[in-house]
Specification:
Radius of gyration: 72 Å
Number of helices: 8
CATH architecture of the domain at 174-334: 3-Layer(aba) Sandwich
Distance between the termini: 223 Å
CATH topology of the domain at 174-334: Rossmann fold
Structural class: alpha/beta
Shape: elongated
């Protein structure tokens, strides 16, 4: 609310608001006029020094125009001088460029010749190198093919060997085929160690039992039996045992199997009056044999007590060689009488030969004497013939008496 005298006016009244706006505008116009007057006075005061500066600037521009005219003349002279110098420089540069170009052409030609020669030599060396490398490569490829052929052959052998190993595993997994495998190995060892007439394979004894091999040793000890046994299941169980319980069970299986084999051999193949007082149990595996001696020595001692000696392929060969020496000694004793008889006959033959050599020597002596007598008679006959040829009829001297012998004497003619 605005109060002027006794009148009160409301600010919200449009008339009042319009009046107030008009008064504000009038005041603003007056303020702008005042400011414009002050600015014009100030501009008038500032224009005076500017006008003076403009006058001075005009003079400077006039002086610059004169200096520009002088500079234009100097630039013309400089331009002419520069043009002449440029022409001279261009001529000098052209001359030098021509010389440099000729020199460069000569050097380029020389370099081209050198490069051609070097390129030719390099091509020749490369050709020789490539030829040598080709030979080496051919040789290497040939060797590589040969080695690949060898590798292929070895691979085939490995494949075949793998099949053979699988077959061996199949053989060893069956008791009957495993027994046949041990018998075959035993037969091979015996056939290599002993003469054929000193052993018998699959021999049948008086009790009806059939032994794998019977060796005919002289008494004592007499014929001895070798039987092949292979406790593979118990040995495999020992190898695969991971716990103490499995190890104990496998050891029990091994003791049971070996004791059963020892008992069977002792009862079947040791016969009083027919075989030796003992037998051999052949184990076709060095590993099983080593396992028995290393961890089951009581089984070996039990075999000794039952007169059953356990042998492996190696110890069996050594035992058979000992038996071969025994057989050889026995046969030499059997042939000792015949040998003495033959020595007596040989002695008589030697004596008879000595007598005949003496007779022959005597005959040779007689023949030599007869030849000597013949030579004497021939010499006499030759001398008589020479005298007759010379007509020498003088009385001949009496000849010496000829020795008597088996030769008929020659007359005096």
């Amino acid at each position: 609310m605005i109060q002027i005298g006794d009148q009160t006016y409301s600010l919200e009244d449009p008339t009042v608001m319009a009046a107030l706006a008009g008064m504000g505008i009038i005041l603003l116009v007056l303020l702008l006029l005042f400011l414009a007057l002050r600015a014009s006075n100030r501009s008038a005061r500032m224009v005076e020094p500017i006008a003076q500066q403009m006058a001075m600037l005009g003079q400077s521009v006039q002086q610059l125009g004169q200096g520009q005219e002088q500079m234009r003349g100097g630039l013309q002279n400089v331009s002419d001088t520069q043009a002449n110098a440029q022409v001279q420089v261009i001529q000098t540069v052209e001359t030098r460029l021509a010389a440099v170009q000729q020199h460069m052409n000569d050097r380029l030609a020389d370099n081209a010749m050198r490069q051609n020669r070097a390129l030719t030599e390099m091509q020749q060396r490369m050709s020789e190198t490539l030829h040598g490398q080709s030979k080496k490569t051919t040789t290497s490829l040939t060797q590589l093919q040969e080695r690949l052929a060898v590798i292929d052959k070895a691979q085939d052998n490995i494949t075949k060997l793998s099949g053979d190993v699988l077959s061996l595993q199949d053989i060893l997994s069956n008791k009957q085929t495993r027994g046949a495998f041990g018998e075959i190995q035993l037969n091979d060892i015996v056939s290599k160690a002993l003469p054929k007439d000193s052993y018998e394979l699959q021999a049948t004894l008086s009790n009806g039992r059939r032994a794998d091999c019977l060796i005919h040793l002289p008494n004592p000890p007499g014929p001895i039996v070798i039987d092949s046994k292979f406790p593979l299941e118990a040995y495999e169980a020992l190898r695969k045992a991971n716990t103490q319980g499995e190890l104990t069970e496998a050891a029990r299986m091994m003791r049971t199997a070996v004791r059963t084999h020892i008992k069977a051999i002792s009862e079947r193949y040791i016969i009083d009056g027919e075989t030796a007082d003992g037998a051999l149990m052949f184990l076709p595996s060095e590993a099983v044999y080593a396992e028995l001696h290393a961890n089951f020595p009581e089984l070996v001692r039990e075999g000794f007590s039952a007169r059953v000696w356990i042998v492996s392929p190696t110890t069996c060969m050594a035992t058979l060689n000992t038996m071969r020496a025994i057989l050889k000694d026995a046969r030499m004793r059997e042939q000792a009488g015949a040998i003495r008889k033959e020595l007596g006959l040989l002695h008589k033959d030697v004596e008879r030969l000595g007598d005949r050599v003496s007779n022959l020597d005597r005959h040779f002596g007689q023949a030599a004497k007869d030849i000597s007598d013949i030579k004497i008679s021939a010499d006499k006959a030759g001398r008589r013939a020479q005298r007759l040829d010379n007509f020498d009829f003088e009385e001949l001297a009496p000849d010496a008496p000829e020795p008597r012998g088996n030769v008929v004497p020659i007359g005096d003619g």
